[in-house]
């Protein structure tokens, strides 16, 4: 079955760029009917949607993060990536990648999450 | 942007109780409303999509209803394994928003 696995730096310095990758296995990232999303959860807080990318490459971002976020897809490696620039301590969170079913925009497959800490 | 108001923020109930959580959208979102369960240290799990459709494999004690701005999530008979935080999530105009979450505890 489809599985997602996040990877990337767990510690990022303030003002630098956070970079994460989500590897997709058990299925193709180019499958129709799905988009691919990033969500984060600060410690002890709720879920915050970051953005998603269609297999076509079209992207949509949370307006509150849009100026700092880039989501891209690498079909040759069957993975998609997140870059978040100019990070501060407020960006410390567990970051999840997820598949989004575009008929109802529910996130039906999730990665296990990766913790990113912003600290000098 | 559409805001989601979820209530209550926390809830304590006994095994076998009927549990209800509500989610209100700041404007009409038709039935573009999904519900998730998140257990501590785990990724969220999709339970309900399009307001009332049960995701494959999810027990039938979970249900959802509503349309427009007002939505309800119900557990018909609370089980010990249902202890978790529940989130609503809306989709409208290509953007996604989560509710604040409801932490469900056993009394």
Describe what you observe in this structure.
The complex is a heterodimer of chains A (120) and B (107). Chain A starts with a strand and ends with a strand. In chain A, a hairpin with a 4-residue loop joins strand 7 and strand 8. Chain A is mainly β and 120 residues long. Chain A contains no helices and 11 strands. Chain B is built from no helices and 11 strands. In chain B, strands 2, 4, 5, 6, 9, 10 and 11 form a 7-stranded mixed β-sheet that branches. Chain B has a 4-stranded antiparallel β-sheet with strand order 1-3-8-7, with no helix packed on it. The model of chain B has no long low-confidence stretch (mean pLDDT 96). Chain B has 107 residues and is mainly beta. Chain B is globular. Chain B starts with a strand and ends with a strand. The chains are: A mainly beta (120), B mainly beta (107). Chains A and B meet through strand 5, strand 9 and strand 10 of A and strand 4, strand 5, strand 9 and strand 10 of B.
Q: Which class do the helix and strand fractions of chain A yield?
A: mainly beta
Rounded to an integer, what's the Rg of chain B over CA atoms? 13 Å
Largest interface: A-B, 21 and 24 residues
Proportion in β-strands of chain B: over 45%
For the sheet with most strands of chain B, the description reads: 7 strands, mixed
Which descriptor suits the 3D outline of chain A?
A: globular
Average pLDDT across residues of chain A?
96
Shape of chain B: globular
H-E string of chain A: EEEEEEEEEEE
Structural class of chain B, by secondary structure, is mainly beta
Number of strands of chain B: 11
């Amino acid at each position: 079955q489809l599985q997602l696995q996040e990877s990337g730096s767990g510690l990022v310095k303030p003002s630098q760029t956070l970079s994460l990758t989500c590897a997709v296995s058990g299925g193709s990232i180019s499958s129709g009917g799905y988009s691919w999303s990033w969500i984060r959860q600060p410690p002890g807080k709720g879920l915050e949607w970051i953005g998603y990318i269609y297999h076509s490459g079209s992207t949509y971002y949370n307006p509150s993060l849009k100026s700092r976020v880039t989501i891209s897809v690498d079909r040759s490696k069957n993975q998609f990536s997140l870059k978040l620039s100019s990070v501060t301590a407020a960006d410390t969170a567990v970051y999840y990648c997820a598949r989004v079913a575009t008929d109802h925009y529910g996130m039906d497959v999730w990665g296990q999450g990766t913790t990113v800490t912003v600290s000098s | 942007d559409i805001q989601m108001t979820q209530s209550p923020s926390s809830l304590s109930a006994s095994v076998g109780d009927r549990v209800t959580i509500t989610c209100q959208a700041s404007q009409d979102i038709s039935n573009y409303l999904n519900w998730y369960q998140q257990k501590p240290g785990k990724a969220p799990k999709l339970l309900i999509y399009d307001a009332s459709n049960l995701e494959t494999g999810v027990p039938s004690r979970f249900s959802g209803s509503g349309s427009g701005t007002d939505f309800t999530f119900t557990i018909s008979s609370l089980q010990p394994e249902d202890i978790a935080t529940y989130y609503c999530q809306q989709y409208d105009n290509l953007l996604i928003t989560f509710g604040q979450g409801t932490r469900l505890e056993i009394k």
